[in-house]
Amino acid sequence: MRTLKSILSFLAVVVVGVVLALGIRTFVAEVYEVPTGSMLETVQLGDRLIGEKISYRFRDPEPGEIVTFEDPEGSGQTLLKRVIATEGQTVELIDGVVYVDGVALDEPYVDGKPSDPIPFDGEGGGISYPYVVPEGCIWVMGDNRTNSRDSRYFGAIPVDSVTSRAVAIFWPFEDACIL
Hints:
CATH topology: Umud Fragment, subunit A
Distance between the termini: 53 Å
Active site: 38, 81
Oligomer: single chain
Main location: membrane
Number of strands: 12
Radius of gyration: 20 Å
Shape: elongated
Organism: Candidatus Coprovicinus avistercoris
Helix content: 10-25%
CATH architecture: Ribbon
């Protein structure tokens, strides 16, 4: 009888643990591995980061925040980009500089890489400027502007497709930091 009680107690602990882990992953935070170099030098290829999911239940993403979202082209990959503009704002790319509502952005994180438009290639790109971000959407760009498929390629993304706000890199340990 004691053995059966011990087994049931153990199973109850396992079930509670699994439910808690799934609940945290679904509603609170998730761990991501960075799949591309599109956010260099801010985030390195292969870095592991924590994305928190609570903030965007109460507010929309804001310019400057780094967000995760599902690839709008349907690859199933989770992408990581910086929010540049929100609904109703006007984005322009002039001589490698990003302008939002006519004001040039101060972007020390791009490390001098130009923010040029991506020409139409038959599959995507070719966004016309000035571009007004539609209602319920955000404009996102990678910090590695010369190697990033972002809103210059696929346009603004729906706020509803954002899965989390990147808050910290935790691995490799020597790169650990708050974003």
